[in-house]
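note to self: dont lose this again. the chain is below, predicted strucutre after it. 457 aa total, dont forget to put it in the shared folder this time
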Amino acid sequence: MEEGEVPRQPPKPLPALDEQSVAKANEAIAIRPKRGRLTLLSRRIYNALLYHSQRQGVDEPVYKLALSELIGDARFNSNNTELLKSHLRDMQATTIEWSTSGTGLKRWVSSQLLGTVTIEEQGRGRPCTITWRYPEEIRERLVKPHQYTRVLLEISGQMRSYPAAVLYEIGARYLTSPSRLSMREDVLWWAAVLTGRSDITEVDYRFLKRDVISKALAEIEALCEDFSLELIEHKRGRRIEEIQFRVVPKLQQRLGVPDDPSRNVFDLELVGKLIALGLKQDEAQDLYATTDEGQLRGTLEHVEQRLRSQTLPALKSPAAYFKDALKKGYAGVKGASEPPATTALPAPPQGRPKAALGGEDRMHRIRELWENDRMQKAKALYLEMPEAMQAEVRSRFEADRLAQIAAPIARAWRRDGPASRIAATTFHRWLAQVTWPEEPSDRVLLDFALAQGVAGM
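---
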C-alpha cells in the first residue's frame, strides 16, 4: 500500500478456489477502452488468467500455465493460437485507470490491462505453455485486491454477449451494496463500457437501449440465478443523459411475486412471436437461450414473409416450418430476408476500413454454432430416452461433473434438474461431450456451415 493510502474496508479473504471464482478488483470491472476494442472472448480469457494468477499467488512476478488449461477455463472452444493471440493483443492495447485517496494524498494510475505474454510451442508431443505478467504498478491490486467482486467463471462463461458479461459483473459487485445501485454515469460512458469500444463519440440513446441494454438485461434475467437488473434513467428535460442499474436479488423477486409459469424471462417480443407461430412456451424459450439471436430473427422474418405469400400454398404448421427453416439456415441463403441490423452505435470514423470477419474469427463463429447445434441434438437425444436411461444419465452427470461446477448452478440442478434454465445448458453441453467426444476438424466445421447455410460464412 502507498504511504497515506487508506482502504475503504478491511481486506476480505479470497473465495474458495474449487468454485473457479475470481476475486476481480472493482476497478477492472467497468473498463472503458482508450483505443481498440474488447470482446466477449477477451473478457473470458482475462478472467481465466486472473483466476490462475490468484491461485499461483501475488509474490510471483510471472505466471505460467498449460495453454490447454487456459483454453478450457476461458470456454474458448478452439485450439487456434492465432485467434487467441489476437484477443491477447486487444487486452494489451487496453488501459485501466486506478484512483485512490488518503490523508493528503490523491493518486491516479493509468496502465495496461495486461503486460508481456509469451506462448511457447515446444514441438510435437510436448504441451504448449503460456506465461504472462501484469504491470508492476497494479499487479498486487489485481492479484490480491482489497476491494473486489467475486465472479464465477462458469456463470460468466455462459453469457452470450459482451454487454451481458459486463452487466453480470456489475450486478455481482453491487448485489451486497446497501443501496444496490450501480454507478451513475452518462450515456456515452455506458455505451463504451457495455460494448468494449473506444471509437464511440456520440450515441442515440434510443438505439443503445433497444439494441444493447434491453437484450443484455434479458440475458441476465435468463442466465443469472442470483439477481436481475433494472434500468434507471435520469433525465434533463426530455433528454436522458445519465443511467444506472438497480440490482434485484432473485430471492426478493420470488418472495414478492408468486411463481407464474407464463412469466417470460427472455425478450418478450421475440419469444412471443415464436409462441404465436405455434411453438410451446418452453420450446420457444429454449430456442432463444441456445440459438444465435440473429439467426432466430432472420428465420422468423423469413417465415412471416412466407405466411404473407399469396402465391404459395398455405402452411399447415408454421411452427414445424420455422424449425425446419432454422435447421436448414433459410435465413442465411440468397433471397431470404436479412435479420434486422443490431448495431445502434456509430460506425468507425470515415476513412477507416470497415472491419470484416477474419478467417480465425469466422471459424470460431462456426465452431460456436456447431456447439449449439450439438447441444440441441444432445437435448433431443435425452428427451427420447426411456425414463430409466434418463435417470442413469443424470446420475452419471452428477458423479462426473456436479462437484466441478459453480455452487449456484449445482444448487439449481439439485432443485430442478434438467428443467433448470441455468443448469440445463451445463448438462446438455456435458451430454454432448460424452456422447460425441471427437473434436471436429476444420473440414467438418466448414461442411456444417455449408449445410446450415450460415450467413456470412
